[in-house]
């Protein structure tokens, strides 16, 4: 068995990875109880829950351990994908520590001594290009994780690097192919199923949304609007009413049948291929 941890900026990004895998029909939800997870994966995740500091919990403002948000198993081959939300790309110190913990827990000698069915662990980082652009986003990733991953000088996004525990980077962009976010792509996908409804939600949100501050980041402001639009779009489905974007992305009918995996140039095909290549 091989494991792939997909390191995402936020929870709905992580759920989108799960939705992509589900829509590809190449993966199924890994619904095993934690007690049935292979060692040392079970020990790693249960340790995260056990290390929660009970005395620091605030009623009404719960915190959750840093564990995968969902899990999917490849239909052909005994491989598991584990998307994780890191709470933003700027949480790089926390993310580095998380990756180091995984590297130690799944080191080759540890797996060998424990006679684990797990062969290796890999890491796929998912970023938005935002207003920085692709090149600056890749450069920022290298600067932040060079020490943890020992990144080679010829590293490029959408390519696997490293030996043993491998790593890769995927960057979402909008229409211009250089800046933008996952939300830009989600809006486009939603439109394929119901363009009129998306237009109505977009008009409603934009008319009342807070204006951008002087000198504010236009891309970041647009992303906030898009999140509101996407969440609103999902509210007419009874099962999603009142839920956050995380649930909408996971469950909405607006994403059914719109991820084109036949065209190898779509972001979905590129991302799915990259995930498959981890194994």
What percent strand? 5-15%
Specify the biggest β-sheet.
6 strands, mixed
Mean pLDDT: 94
Helical region count? 9
Spatial strand arrangement across the major sheet: 2-3-4-1-5-6
Beta-strand segment tally: 6
Category from helices, strands and their pairing = alpha/beta
Please provide the ordered H/E string of secondary-structure elements: EHEHEEHHEHEHHHH
Distance between the termini: 9 Å
Principal-axis shape: globular
Unreliably modeled segments: none
| Range of helix content | 40-55%
- Rg for CA atoms: 19 Å
What does this structure look like?
- The protein is of the alpha/beta class and 279 residues long.
- 43% of the residues lie in helices and 13% in strands.
- It has nine helices and six strands, in the order βαβαββααβαβαααα.
- The chain has helices at residues 11-24, 41-50, 92-105, 108-113, 134-149, 182-208, 218-233, 245-251, 267-277; strands at residues 2-8, 27-29, 72-74, 79-85, 120-128, 167-172.
- A six-stranded mixed β-sheet has the order 2-3-4-1-5-6, with helices on both faces.
- The longest helix is centred in the last third of the chain and has 27 residues, at 182-208.
- The termini are close together.
List the SSEs and their pairings.
Elements: E1 2-8, H1 11-24, E2 27-29, H2 41-50, E3 72-74, E4 79-85, H3 92-105, H4 108-113, E5 120-128, H5 134-149, E6 167-172, H6 182-208, H7 218-233, H8 245-251, H9 267-277
Helix pairs in contact: 1-8, 6-7
Fill in the keyword field for this structure.
alpha/beta, six-stranded mixed sheet, globular, 279 residues
Short structural summary:
The chain has 279 residues and is an alpha/beta fold.
């Amino acid at each position: 068995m091989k494991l792939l941890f997909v390191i995402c900026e936020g929870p709905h990004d992580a759920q989108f990875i799960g939705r992509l895998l589900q829509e590809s029909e190449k993966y199924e939800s890994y619904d095993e109880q934690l007690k049935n997870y292979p060692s040392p994966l079970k020990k790693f995740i249960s340790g995260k829950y056990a290390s929660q500091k009970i005395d620091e919990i605030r009623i009404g403002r719960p915190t959750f351990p840093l564990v995968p948000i969902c899990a999917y198993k490849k239909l052909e081959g005994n491989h598991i994908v584990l998307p994780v939300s890191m709470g933003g790309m700027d949480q790089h110190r926390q993310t580095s520590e998380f990756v180091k913990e995984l590297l130690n827990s799944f080191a080759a000698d540890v797996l060998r001594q424990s006679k684990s069915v797990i062969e290796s662990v890999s890491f796929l980082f998912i970023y938005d290009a935002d207003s920085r652009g692709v090149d600056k986003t890749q450069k920022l990733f290298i600067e932040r994780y060079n020490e943890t991953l020992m990144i080679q000088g010829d590293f490029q996004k959408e390519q696997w690097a490293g030996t043993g525990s491998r790593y890769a980077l995927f960057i979402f962009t909008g229409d211009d192919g250089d800046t933008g976010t996952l939300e830009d792509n989600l809006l486009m996908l939603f439109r394929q199923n119901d363009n009129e409804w998306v237009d109505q939600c977009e008009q409603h949100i934009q008319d009342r949304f807070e204006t951008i501050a002087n000198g504010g980041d236009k891309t970041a402001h647009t992303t906030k609007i898009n999140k509101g639009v996407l969440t609103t779009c999902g509210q007419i489905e009874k099962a999603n009413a009142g839920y956050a974007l995380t649930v909408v992305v996971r469950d909405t009918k607006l994403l059914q049948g719109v991820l084109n995996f036949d065209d190898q140039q779509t972001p979905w095909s590129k991302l799915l291929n990259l995930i498959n290549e981890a194994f």
